[in-house]
C-alpha cells in the first residue's frame, strides 16, 4: 500500500525542515511526499530542494489558498491512501505510517483517524491541547464531533468518487470534506487510538476567537450545501466539546506569549 502525504507550505522555512524530516524518518518506506509551495519568498524552496528525497514531488507556484493547494497535491499523488501533514506539523514518532497502514488493512476500512496534540510553536514537546477522538460512530457528527483533520487518512478513490476540498471555504473545507465523506456518504472509518500528530498552535481556523467564529459560520454552510440537517445544538456543541482538551495552564502561558 502506497501512502501519499500532502504538505502545503508558504514561507514556512522555520518549521518545514522538521516536517520533511518527520516524513523521511518513518520506518514505512512506501511513502510519496508531495509538497505544494505557494511560491514562497523565503528560504523554503532551498530547504525543500536540499532535504527532499529524490522520489518526492515538489511544485512551487502561486495558488489560490490552502485548499486549492491541497487539491493540487492530491491530483499529483499516486498513492493508494492520502494523508495531510501541514508545514507546521510533525509525526509523533517514526512508526506512524506503519501503524496507519496496518490498521487500515486490519479494519478493512476506507478511512482512518487518530489522536492529536496541539503543541507550543516554540517547543513541540509542550502540550497545549490533547485531542482524543474516540471510536467512530456516524451520528457523533450530530453532537458536534469531528476527527482531527491532520490525522485523517483516506483512500484516493474516495476523492475521485466524492470530490476534493471545496475551495469556496476558507477555514472549514476540511470539516466539510469529512462531513461529506463520513456522514453524508457513510464511508467506512476506523480509529487508531494513539497520538500520531504534533500540531503547532496558531492555525488558520484556531488561531484566535474571530477566526474560530468565522470557521463556525462555515461549519453551518457545510451542512447546508450537503443538504444535511444538523440538530439544533450541533454547531454549538462543536466548539464546546473541545474545551476539555486544553491543558489550561499551558494555554494561558501560550496566550501570554511565554511559550
Descriptive notes:
With 259 residues, the chain is an alpha/beta fold. The chain has 9 helices and 9 strands. Strands 1, 2, 3, 4, 5, 6, 7, 8 and 9 form a 9-stranded mixed β-sheet that branches. A hairpin with a 7-residue loop joins strand 6 (111-119) and strand 7 (127-131). It is globular and about 50 Å long. The termini are far apart. The relative contact order is 0.15.
By secondary-structure content and strand pairing, the structural class works out as alpha/beta
Give the helices and strands as they follow along the chain. EHEHEHEEHEEEHHEHHH
Strand content: 15-25%
- The CATH superfamily is Spore Coat Polysaccharide Biosynthesis Protein SpsA, Chain A
Give a summary of the structure in a few sentences:
By secondary structure, this protein is α/β, with parallel strands linked by helices. The protein has helices at 13-24, 44-51, 66-76, 96-107, 156-162, 173-184, 209-225, 234-240, 248-255; strands at residues 3-9, 31-37, 57-60, 81-84, 89-91, 111-119, 127-131, 153-155, 189-200.
Amino acid at each position: 500500500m502506497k501512502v501519499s502525504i500532502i504538505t502545503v507550505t508558504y514561507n514556512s522555512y522555520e518549521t518545514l525542515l522538521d516536517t520533511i524530516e518527520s516524513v523521511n524518518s518513518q520506518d514505512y518506506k512506501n511513502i510519496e511526499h508531495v509538497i505544494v509551495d505557494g511560491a514562497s519568498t523565503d528560504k523554503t524552496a532551498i530547504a525543500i530542494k536540499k532535504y527532499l528525497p529524490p522520489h518526492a514531488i515538489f511544485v512551487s507556484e502561486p495558488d489560490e489558498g490552502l485548499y486549492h493547494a491541497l487539491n493540487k497535491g492530491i491530483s499529483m499523488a499516486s498513492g493508494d491512501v492520502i494523508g495531510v501533514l501541514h508545514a507546521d506539523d510533525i509525526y509523533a514518532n517514526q512508526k506512524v505510517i506503519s501503524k496507519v497502514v496496518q490498521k487500515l488493512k486490519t479494519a478493512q476500512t476506507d478511512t482512518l483517524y487518530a489522536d492529536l496534540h496541539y503543541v507550543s510553536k516554540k517547543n513541540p514537546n509542550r502540550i497545549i491541547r490533547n485531542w482524543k477522538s474516540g471510536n467512530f460512530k456516524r451520528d457523533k457528527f450530530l453532537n458536534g464531533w469531528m476527527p482531527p483533520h491532520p490525522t485523517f487518512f483516506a483512500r484516493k478513490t474516495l476523492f475521485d468518487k466524492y470530490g476534493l476540498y471545496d475551495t469556496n471555504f476558507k477555514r472549514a473545507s476540511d470539516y466539510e470534506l469529512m462531513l461529506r465523506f463520513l456522514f453524508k456518504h457513510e464511508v467506512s472509518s476506523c480509529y487508531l487510538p494513539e497520538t500520531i500528530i504534533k500540531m503547532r498552535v496558531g492555525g488558520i481556523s484556531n488561531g484566535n476567537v474571530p477566526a474560530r467564529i468565522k470557521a463556525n459560520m462555515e461549519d453551518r454552510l457545510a451542512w447546508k450545501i450537503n443538504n444535511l440537517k444538523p440538530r439544533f445544538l450541533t454547531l454549538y456543541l462543536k466548539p464546546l466539546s473541545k474545551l476539555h482538551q486544553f491543558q489550561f495552564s499551558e494555554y494561558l502561558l501560550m496566550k501570554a506569549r511565554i511559550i
